[in-house]
Automatic annotation (TrEMBL), chain A:
<keyword id="KW-0813">Transport</keyword>
<dbReference type="InterPro" id="IPR012255">
    <property type="entry name" value="ETF_b"/>
</dbReference>
<dbReference type="InterPro" id="IPR014729">
    <property type="entry name" value="Rossmann-like_a/b/a_fold"/>
</dbReference>
<comment type="similarity">
    <text>Belongs to the ETF beta-subunit/FixA family.</text>
</comment>
<feature type="domain" description="Electron transfer flavoprotein alpha/beta-subunit N-terminal">
    <location>
        <begin position="23"/>
        <end position="212"/>
    </location>
</feature>
<dbReference type="InterPro" id="IPR014730">
    <property type="entry name" value="ETF_a/b_N"/>
</dbReference>
<dbReference type="GO" id="GO:0009055">
    <property type="term" value="F:electron transfer activity"/>
</dbReference>
<dbReference type="Pfam" id="PF01012">
    <property type="entry name" value="ETF"/>
</dbReference>
<dbReference type="InterPro" id="IPR033948">
    <property type="entry name" value="ETF_beta_N"/>
</dbReference>
From TrEMBL, chain B:
<protein>
    <submittedName>
        <fullName>Electron transfer flavoprotein alpha subunit apoprotein</fullName>
    </submittedName>
</protein>
<dbReference type="InterPro" id="IPR014729">
    <property type="entry name" value="Rossmann-like_a/b/a_fold"/>
</dbReference>
<dbReference type="Pfam" id="PF01012">
    <property type="entry name" value="ETF"/>
</dbReference>
<keyword id="KW-0813">Transport</keyword>
<dbReference type="GO" id="GO:0009055">
    <property type="term" value="F:electron transfer activity"/>
</dbReference>
<feature type="binding site">
    <location>
        <begin position="261"/>
        <end position="268"/>
    </location>
    <ligand>
        <name>FAD</name>
    </ligand>
</feature>
<keyword id="KW-0249">Electron transport</keyword>
<feature type="domain" description="Electron transfer flavoprotein alpha/beta-subunit N-terminal">
    <location>
        <begin position="3"/>
        <end position="192"/>
    </location>
</feature>
<dbReference type="InterPro" id="IPR014730">
    <property type="entry name" value="ETF_a/b_N"/>
</dbReference>
Length: 248, 319
């Protein structure tokens, strides 16, 4: 099995989010970048396919050279090879278009992406890749098994879950559940050393125009102070929720 | 030229999100001086959509569409958009709608923007405001294609009634064969889902163990709320993963979010901040959640929650 794992390079979950250039650009100053958490669950599941089923695992990112440390980290976790498509990720469609080309060129049978990245929260790249490559697609995937040319994938639905059997080639929009939190791997010294020897190929993008454009960012207005209610006066809480907030 | 809204149903019944996308569609149609058409698949009763501004409903009934299939549903919506010559398609933020939207975008060669929270700032160029960085910021985004898909964030625009009426028209699209087979569906029966809930009651590690969730469930019951939890609670196996909310779990955008024994870590807050009103119950007056909350009780959940349940029961009985 030839697996491609899509890796988004995102600010660490604890980052303060700021903008520059008249609030038109994300300010990466002082921000620590990580593998997008949804992608990390997928990458870890791919390691299982590598170790148990002899799969080859390639990781890919669409972005500038600043994303290479994140790809190296994925190699240190155990991926065999990395590809970086050298272009700015200006919208979900453009990223999907680049990934579709990588998938076609590399004949991947299984593509594991995250259901969304925690920076722009677009939630569209895996689905668009499936549409563009005409592959099957399962989103919000929380369990995945592959047997020959068929996969069994479980997806989370509103209020439950659903198990689907589906043929390869297959694109997954993954999330926690693909593996447990406790199964996530921290790269060890040996992994980090080996990652340096592994191929990281830079490919040039094909000409694609974005369909949407980010114009400007705003931050939420600061929150007013909390109203504290003494624990022996819960009637007041109910009064506030009913008459002031009008939510009960 | 109608604005097309995909009004989702679940086992024949229109979902709350359907009325929200209809309301939003009506507002966009007003901006553009056009009408609203809804596409609904296997819904029993659709005339009620008229109360939310829909002029016409394309009703599809087909046993082949009984279980949701993103690719096939996307193709049905595409055919509806083409029939109506719609330039704008509006969908909700349900798991199913978010699943089909990117496929639909490829099919229609449309630009798609998700998590939109307000009516368009401008219709030419078509510019919308959306949530980004998991509620830590808003992004103003422009869609540059002829056909545009807008994914509306849950509970952001809300329901807006208007006194119109909707005519129904049978619609029989071509239905593609599927190469995906649903083997089993596992539903938590009779429970309000986090996605649809007006109120969410959420418990954290402060509750000490799974055996203490009885009072959380009871509080949720009396309020008609969904239950949720913080990440460590699901990682510890006290509650199912499907209840994990936050930046790496499910997003919550309810009217009321009650956090009990949750400290309010940045990753938790990011995922629940879109809720309109937040109440925190925590023994530690310094817990960061109090800074993000509207109302708070500094106290022990084991004494406060049972009292609160009694008070709410009494309040409900009076209503
Ligand atoms: C990459 C990453 C992603 C993450 N994503 C998420 C996410 O999506 N969602 C999420 O929730 N977390 C997430 N986290 C974890 C997050 O950082 C916190 O660790 C977590 O939210 C803490 O959960 P908690 O509030 O339940 O527990 P704690 O932080 O342990 O807080 C327990 C609280 O309970 C209070 N308490 C104790 N006893 C009582 C009592 N008797 N009555 C009332 N209050 C009491 C305490 O004062 C304390 O404030 C993520 C972390 C990382 C690193």
């Amino acid at each position: 099995m030839n697996i491609l794992v899509c890796i988004s390079h995102v600010p660490d979950t604890t980052s303060k989010i700021n903008f520059t250039d008249n609030d038109s650009k994300f300010d990466a100053n002082g921000v620590q970048f990580v593998i997008n958490p949804n992608d990390e669950f997928g990458l870890t599941r791919a390691m299982w396919f590598k170790e148990k089923q002899g799969a080859k695992v390639t990781v890919v990112n669409v972005g500038g050279s600043e994303t290479e440390p994140t790809l190296r980290k994925a190699l240190a976790i155990g991926a065999d090879a990395a590809i970086r498509v050298n272009t700015k990720a200006t919208d979900g469609f453009k990223v999907a278009k680049q990934l579709a080309k990588v998938i076609t060129d590399g004949s991947f049978d299984l593509v594991i992406a995250g259901r969304e990245s925690i920076d722009y929260n677009g939630g569209m790249v895996p689905g668009m890749v499936a549409g563009l490559t005409n592959a099957n697609f399962v989103n919000n995937c929380i369990a995945l098994e592959v047997d020959g040319n068929t996969a069994s994938a479980t997806r989370e639905i509103d209020g439950g879950k659903e198990t689907i059997s589906v043929g390869l080639p297959l694109i997954i929009g993954g999330q926690k559940g693909l593996v447990e939190e406790s199964e996530l791997r921290i790269p060890n010294m040996r992994g980090i050393m080996m990652a340096r020897q592994k191929p990281l190929t830079v490919v040039e993008p094909d000409e694609t125009n974005s369909k949407t454009a980010s114009i400007k960012f705003e931050k939420p207005a600061p929150k007013g102070a909390v109203k504290l209610v003494p624990e022996d006066n819960l009637d007041e809480l109910i009064n506030l929720l009913h008459n002031e907030a009008k939510v009960i | 030229m109608s604005v097309l809204v995909y009004t989702e149903s679940d086992q024949g019944k229109l979902k709350k999100g359907a009325f929200e996308v209809a309301s939003y569609g009506k507002a966009v149609a007003n901006q553009l001086g056009t009408t609203v058409t809804a596409i609904s698949i296997n819904a029993d009763e659709t005339s009620v959509l008229g109360n939310y501004g829909v002029d016409k409903v394309l009703t599809v009934s087909s046993s082949e569409l009984e279980s949701f299939n993103a690719k096939i549903y996307a193709s049905v919506i595409k055919q509806a958009a083409e029939k109506e010559n719609s330039q704008i398609v509006i969908i909700s933020s349900s798991a199913d709608s978010k699943y089909l939207a990117p496929l639909l975008a490829v099919d229609l060669q449309a630009g798609y923007v998700s998590n939109v929270i307000e009516t368009p700032i401008s219709t030419s160029p078509f510019t919308v405001k959306r949530n980004a960085f998991t509620n830590k910021a808003f992004e103003i985004t422009q869609i540059n294609t002829n056909v545009k898909i807008v994914g509306v964030s849950s509970n952001a625009f809300g329901l807006v009634e208007s006194n119109g009426s909707a005519t129904a028209e049978d619609f029989s699209p071509t239905i593609e064969a599927s190469n995906l087979k649903v083997e089993s569906v596992d539903r938590t029966t009779n429970k309000v889902t986090i996605a649809d809930a007006d109120i969410v009651v959420s418990g954290g590690r402060g509750l000490k163990g799974p055996e203490n969730w009885g009072m959380i469930e009871e509080l949720a019951d009396v309020l008609g709320a969904a239950t949720a939890c913080s990440k460590p609670v699901s990682d510890l196996g006290w509650r199912p993963h499907s209840e994990h909310v936050g930046q790496t779990g499910k997003p919550v955008a309810s009217n009321l979010y009650i956090a009990i024994g949750i400290s309010g870590a940045i990753q938790h807050l990011a995922g629940v901040n879109a809720s309109k009103v937040k109440v925190v119950i925590n023994t530690d007056a310094e817990a960061p959640f109090f800074k993000a909350a509207d109302y708070g009780v500094v106290g022990d959940a084991f004494t406060v929650v049972p009292k609160l349940i009694e008070k709410i029961k009494a309040f409900k009985a009076q209503q």
